[in-house]
Amino acid sequence: MATEKDLMDAIARIESDVTGFIAASFVDLESGMTLAAKSNRSDFDLSVASAYNSEMVKQKLKIMKALNLKTTLEDMLLTLGDQIHLIRMVTPATFLYFAADKGGTNLAIVRTAVNRHTTGLF
Amino acid sequence: MVLLDPESDSVVIRVVYDGPPEAGKTTSVRALAGSLGRPVFTPGQVEGRTVYFDWLDYTGGLFEGHRIRCQVVSVPGQATLAPRRRALLLTADVVVFVADSRREALDALPGYLQGLSGILAGVPGPPVGLVVQANKRDLAGAAPVAEVRRVLDASGLRVGIVESIAVDAAGVREGFVFAVRLALDRAREQLRTGRLARSRPEVGSGEELLAALQQAERGALDLAASDGLRHIHLSEVGAASPAGQALSEAVAAEQAAEHEVGRVWHAQEEERPPRLPGAGVAGGMIWPPVHGRLLLHETEEAPPPLSRNADGDWYGLSGTCWRVQSPAHAAFTELEGGRAALIDWARVHSASAAALSPERCIVLGEDHGGWRLWQVVRAEESVEERLLAAEGRDPGAAAQALVDCVNSFGDAVRLFPRAACRLPLTLAGLGAGHAPARFVGLMPAPAFVRPPEPCPPAMADALLARALGPHLERLSVERDRIMAAMERLPAHGSHGAGPAVAVMRRLWATT
Predict the structure, then answer these.
(1) Given an 8 Å threshold on Cβ–Cβ distance, is B62 in contact with A55?
(2) B162 min Cα distance to partner chain A (Å)
(3) Nearest C-alpha of chain B: how many angstroms from A111?
(4) Which homologous superfamily does the CATH classification assign to the domain defined by B3-243?
(5) A30, A40, A42, A89: best to mutate for the B interface, most B CBs within 10 A
(6) How would you classify the pairing of strands B160-163 and B129-135?
(7) Which of A33, A36, A70 sits opposite B61 (nearest CB)?
(8) Which residue in A1, A35, A70 is closest to B370 by CB distance?
(9) Are B278 and A5 inside 8 Å of each other by CB?
(10) DSSP string, B445-498
(11) Residues B321, B317: Cα–Cα separation, whole Å
(12) Do B67 and A91 count as a contact with CB atoms less than 8 A apart?
C-alpha cells in the first residue's frame, strides 16, 4: 500500500502539472477519512469536502447497481461556476478528490495529470 | 464508548494508542497530529515520558451521514502506571498497538498483546479491533513483517499489521485510517443492535479527560509518576503489584450464538474470474464485523491465485495461511440478494461457532459490477495431516497422532450434531491444534447447507474405522511398538490416551 508520503508526492506532481490547483486528497471510501491531503486555500475545508464526496461516490455506485450497469466507476467530473472538481477511483476502496480554478486550467489537462500521477500508486 | 452526539451530529469514537515503553506511541500521535494539522494536548510529562496521555481530537469522514469525531488518546507506557493505562484502554473502540519491530523486542510482544487482549475482553459490546503498528522499520535489526506475523500467530492473536517509521510520520496515517474503519465496524454493529448510545460524550477534551482521570484515581498514582519514571517492562512487574494485578485482569467475552438455521438460496452464477474482496470492503458486508476485517487485511498481504474446480467453486490458498473460497452460485447481480445470503450464511456460522475453528470470516465483495460471497478460513493442520507426517517417524509420534485422531473424532461426534448445519465427519476436517476438536475445513456452500444429524455410536465406529483404515494398514508393521508407545502415554485427562487405546485395539483387531 502507498504511504502518506507517496500520496503527498503524487499530489505535489499533480499540483506542478495543473495551473490553478486548489486542493487534492486521497480518500478512504468506506470512512471518508483522508489518507493524504493538501489545500492551497485556508477557506477550503478539504476534510469536509472529502467526507461528503465519499458519500457522493457511494451514491453513484448505488445508482450503477440500480441501473444494473456491470462496469466500474472510473472518475466523476464536476464543473462549478469557477472550479473544476475531479474524483478519480484509484482502487475500489480509495479515490482521489481534486479541485482546481476553472480559469487556470481545463478538464483535459486535469484529467491527464491526475491519471498520469495516480496510476500504479496502490 | 462509541456514541452518537446529537448536539454536534457526529459519531464519537475513541482510538487508543498502546504499546511498550519507548515503542513510539507519543511519536505516532504527534506525527498523526502533524499530518492532520491538529494540536496535541499532553499533560504533565516527566523526563520526556508520558505520565497521563496524549490527546488529539480530529473530525473527518462520514458514518451513516454523521461526521466522525475521533478522540485519539495514547496511554502511558510505564508499567507502574498500568492502572491508568487500563482505565484508558477500557474506553477504546479500537486500539493501535505501537510495537518496536526490531528482532530483540519481538519476544516480549506476545506477552504485551495477551495482556492487552485480556483488558479489551472486558470492554462491553462488540469486540474492540486491534491494529499492530510495526514501528521502527528504518532501524537495523527490524524483523520482516512475515516474522512479526509468525510471532503473533503463534500466540493466537488476530490483528492487522501496518508498518511505520513514526519519527518520519511514515505509515502512521494509514494505520489510523484502518483503525477508524474497525471502530466504525464496531459502531455499525451497535447501531444494528440498537445499542448505539445517543448523548454528549462525557469527555470532550484533553482537559476533561485529565480531570476525569485525576478524580477517579484520587492521587493513587501520583507517587509513581513523581518518583521518576523508569522503563520497567511488564515482565519485571510482580503479579501481586497493582500494575501486575491490573494487567492480569482478563475476562473472556463471548458473543451468544444465534441458534438459527440458515436458509438455502440460489443466485445467478457468474462465469468471469472473480475479484477477491479486500479490507476496504464496505461495512455490513463482513461477518464477524471487526475480526473479519482484520482477517481480510491479513489475506491482502499475499493475495492468493484463484482456480476453479469442476463444481464451479473458486478456491485460493494465500501462502500457507489462508484459504479463500467462493461457492458456485454465490454471485449476485443485486446487492439486496447478496446481503440476504450473507446474513443467512452468517447465522449458520454463528450458530455453529462451538464446532468451528475461530479463524474464519465470510464477506460479500464487489465483483465485476455484481456481488460475490466468500469464505476465508485459516489453513490449519488437520489430525489426518499430522498422522501422515508421523507415519514416517518413530512409533511414539505415530502413537500420539493416532490418539489425537481418535480423541478428536470422538469430540466431533459429540459436537458436530449441535452445529446449525451438517459438517463432514472426516479426519481431514478436524484441526490438530484444538481441544476439543474444531472443524477447520470450509463450510458447506450455502446451497448445500443441510440440517445436522446425530451420529449413533455404531455409525461413529464405522466412520472412524474407515477413516483410519488406510493409515493402520501402512502402520501395521510397527503395530506392536506403536501400541506399546500408546500405553505409555498419559491415560487420563480431557484428551488422555486411555479410551483411545481401547479403540485402537479394537480397530487393529479387525484390520
Answers:
(1) yes
(2) 10
(3) 24
(4) P-loop containing nucleotide triphosphate hydrolases (3.40.50.300)
(5) A30
(6) parallel
(7) A33
(8) A70
(9) no
(10) PGGG--------HHHHHHHHHHHHHHHHHHHGGGHHHHHHHHHHS---STT-SH
(11) 7
(12) no
Specify the amino acid at residue A11. I
Q: pLDDT in tens for each of the 511 residues of chain B?
A: 899 999 999 999 999 999 998 899 999 999 999 999 999 999 876 666 778 899 999 999 999 999 999 999 999 987 778 888 999 999 999 999 999 999 999 988 888 888 898 899 889 889 999 999 999 999 999 999 889 988 888 777 778 899 999 999 999 999 999 999 999 999 999 998 888 999 999 999 999 999 998 888 777 666 555 554 454 444 444 444 444 444 444 333 323 333 333 333 334 444 567 888 888 888 889 999 888 888 888 888 788 888 888 778 898 987 768 899 998 888 888 888 888 889 889 988 988 988 999 889 999 998 877 889 999 999 889 999 999 998 888 888 998 899 889 989 988 998 899 898 889 889 999 998 778 889 999 998 877 788 888 888 888 888 888 888 888 888 888 888 988 888 888 876 666 777 788 888 888 887 6
Query: Cell triple for residue B409?
Result: 473424532
**Which of B351, B339, B367, B325 has its CA nearest to residue B420?**
B351
Which among A4, A51, A52 has CB closest to B170?
A4
Contacts of residue B60 in chain A, CB cutoff 8 Å? 32-34, 47, 50-51
Chain B residues touching residue A91 (CB < 8 angstroms): 280
Question: Does B331 touch chain A if contact means CB atoms closer than 8 Å?
Answer: no
CA distances from A53 to A58, A88, B4 (A): 9, 11, 22
- The single residue listed with the C-alpha cell 485482569 is B249
